[in-house]
Predict the structure.
Amino acid sequence: MKIALVAQHATPLPGHSAQQAEDTRLLELSRSLAGRGHGVTVYARRRGASLPERADFGPGVKIEYIGPEDRRPPAGGQDADLLAQVPEFSRPLHERWRHDRPDVVHALRWTSGLAALAAARELHMPIVQSFDSLGVAEQRHRMIPRGTGSERIRLEPVIGRTANAVVAASFDEESDLTRLGVPRRSIKVIPYGVDTDEFSPEGPAAPRTNRPRLLTVADLAEHEAIGTLLRALGKVPEAELVVAGGPPSNELRGDLAYRRLAKLAHSLELSGRVFFAGQVGRAALPSLLRSADLLVSVSDYEPSALTALQAMACGLPVIATPVGGQIDAVVDGTTGILVPAGRPALLAQRIRQLLAHPILLEAFSMAATDRARSRYSWDRIAHETLAVYDTALSTAA
């Protein structure tokens, strides 16, 4: 099968590992599909005059870069910028597909969906759509301010209803899609995957103290959510917390979000028990995960649950807020615990409960590893995705 993956938002570079969840999905999915004997071409945004038109992304995977070197983005932000560039992305895409037709097109994110639908017009190719996150969900969880993202919120339901099939990253996203009028029969829930070779219990662990270690990987701008965790830590006096995220460690002092959180930690008398690690690259993340006793994910919105999956694959139990993909990934009472957002006392109670029972913690660890390997391996994700492609091909015939 010739598969076209459309990623207008991305500029994947050969030899570079992905950092963002959406880029990780693009990288791993393309390689897993190619590993099953299919030809995969990734159509991505051209960023920088030095990039060639085509490059190899791995065995069986090619990248074709489309569009001129990025201009200065308008005041509306990345989505507005990408939306403005849809015509200049879709026109060359149409020409390439007219001469080298793929069997199925899989668009990642909403602007890629617009570009793919425009490019495939009159070519009668099946379109599969993944949104990665929805504007209505981001607005509901205050990830985007109310009154913004109106074009995205208006267009996402149209894209979902027009595509031959829609892949939702979680059952939570499936519910949102059905409320937007996308027929449930055209939606298939396929979560993000995790590289269970790279992320595994076996391997080196980062240095640590003798204290029980909690780890969170978060955007430091999520001040309210991380503040909840810091307040909970105050009620777990024996534990330490490592906060990974934000700019590189040598740039933290210049970051306003870091300064606000450091000030809060000081006011809560947590000095010596909270360590801000800054940005942690993918290569260093497995060893950091293995050094911890618990991953605590307090995000208000987590569509992919990627960090939770990476932690589980490393044998790390997860305490998480019941949002997005975390509802599906974390089996409450088996691989971890789900705790509502904004409940520092309850969060502290659940952390103490696990830290006080090493046998329970070990049982959660084994269950987490087993679930990551059995449900979230990229081999299984590729298998389920190919089944969606087959269905889209049959419905488009």
About this structure: The radius of gyration is 21 Å.
